Amino acid sequence: MEEVRIRRSRRVAAVAATVGVGGLALTLAVDFVRTPLTTALCAVAVVVGVLGMIDRRVKLLLSEDGVRYSEWGSSVIPWLEFSGFRWAAWRGQPYLQLLPRRPSQLVADFSKVGRINHRSRELLRMPRFGIAVSALEVTAPRLAELVARYLPELPAS
């Protein structure tokens, strides 16, 4: 079976850049909005958005060997580490949630950045081991079809 490489959606990056440009225009037009903090945040949104639009690195890799999701680190995690997947939502956005057999061990194997990212997602009450479909160049049904090659779909909790 072939490797499936899914890139970051340019749509999300374009929204960030647009919000940043709009915010910068607002800070120039309205005195009470013009603070160093708002200007810096808008500038960061523009930079992150533009970089996201030109970044064509693979965000999600699915292969017979396992899964690599860039937000968890750079290692491929074998499919045997997961018992299945299910759908979850956070703030109205769909997440494909992989269900690890040993969650704490899996997190311990993440890179330092992956562990920090995982912890911040927990604090925000985002789905654990969730893959944000809206941030990828793939539809939810297609992603489910691809993952179902390797794992069973389990009922939502």
Compact overview of the structure:
The chain has 157 residues and is of the alpha+beta class. It is built from 5 helices and 6 strands; from the N terminus they run E-H-H-E-E-E-E-H-H-E-H. The chain has 2 domains: 4-54, no CATH class; 64-147, no CATH class.
Label the overall shape.
elongated
Strand order of the largest sheet: 1-2-3
Number of helices: 5
The poorly predicted ranges are none
By secondary-structure content and strand pairing, the structural class works out as alpha+beta
Proportion of residues in β-strands: 15-25%
Strand elements, count: 6
What is the gyration radius calculated from CA atoms?
18 Å
The profile of the biggest β sheet is: 3 strands, antiparallel
Could you say how many structural domains there are in total?
2
Helices and strands, in N-to-C order?
EHHEEEEHHEH
The N- to C-terminal Cα distance equals 31 Å
> Percent range for helical residues?
40-55%
Whole-number average pLDDT?
Answer: 85
Explain the overall architecture.
With 157 residues, the protein is an alpha+beta fold. The chain folds into two domains: 4-54, no CATH class; 64-147, no CATH class. 41% of the residues lie in helices and 22% in strands. The protein has helices spanning 10-29, 36-54, 103-108, 112-123, 140-147; strands at residues 4-7, 58-63, 66-69, 82-90, 93-100, 130-132. The strands form two sheets. The protein has a three-stranded antiparallel sheet with strand order 1-2-3, with no helix packed on it. It has a three-stranded antiparallel sheet with strand order 4-5-6, covered by helices on one side. A hairpin with a 2-residue loop joins strand 2 and strand 3 (66-69). Helix 1 packs antiparallel against helix 2 (36-54). It starts with a strand and ends in a 10-residue tail after the last helix. The model has no long low-confidence stretch (mean pLDDT 85).
